[in-house]
């Protein structure tokens, strides 16, 4: 399936580049644009109903976050995430995400979005759509760390979560599907956040990520 057949036109907006970037990011993370696939500006622009300029700007932005690679010969391709790449992403997450989720737990913010994402993931556990499950897991994590009060940490974690979502299906879950175990771990993290216990939320998040790192060893 080529890139022009897996994207829908975006609505007109003054932030068209952001909308285009979001559309391409979602297609990549859902697997509709495969790792290693070449992305042609003209075809993407036609399918999205925009000019090539916002597509070009969006691809430059996605290259900065590591989701696509701009090469001298092949143009722009979707990044291929290997085991070493995924391990590095998890190691940096380990430094930032426990702290961020602990801050969210201390803030007293409602965790309704995380609860909804967790329910979506639960409904997908018995199926075969691992890409959708990976995206639901990404939304769950983001709903928790995005309320930490530090936009620099959130931006860094967004990039790391993109790489984690991209690599989970093709690397982490390929040899040994662990999503039922991860779902149970998510339940305990969310319970700690909802209870307003930052120390427990931080400790459980750290343990959750450490287990993912161990699975990559």
What's this model, at a glance?
Residues 14-81 form the HTH gntR-type domain. Keywords: DNA-binding, Transcription, Transcription regulation. By secondary structure, the protein is mostly helical.
Q: Quote the distance from N terminus to C terminus.
A: 33 Å
Strand content: under 5%
How many domains would you count in the coordinates? 2
Sketch the major β-sheet: 3 strands, antiparallel
Trace the largest sheet across and list its strands.
1-3-2
Radius of gyration: 18 Å
Number of helices: 9
Q: Can you write the helix and strand succession as a string? A: HEHHEEHHHHHH
Overall average residue pLDDT: 88
Question: Could you estimate the helical fraction of the residues in percent?
Answer: 55-70%
Assigned CATH superfamily of the largest domain: GntR ligand-binding domain-like
> Which stretches of 5+ consecutive residues score pLDDT under 50?
none
Keywords: DNA-binding, Transcription, Transcription regulation
Protein name: FCD domain-containing protein
Pfam families: FCD, GntR
InterPro entries: GntR_C, TF_FadR/GntR_C, Tscrpt_reg_HTH_GntR, WH-like_DNA-bd_sf, WH_DNA-bd_sf
